[in-house]
Amino acid sequence: MQLTIPKAAKLYGKHRSTIHRHIESGRLSCGFRGDGTRIIEMAELIRCYGEPEHLPDDMQPPATPRQEDMQQAMLQALQAMHQELVALREEVAQLKQLPPPTNADQGHQDPQAAVQETDSDPHGLRSLARSLYQDES
Question: How far is CA 26 from the centre of its chain?
Answer without folding.
Answer: 44
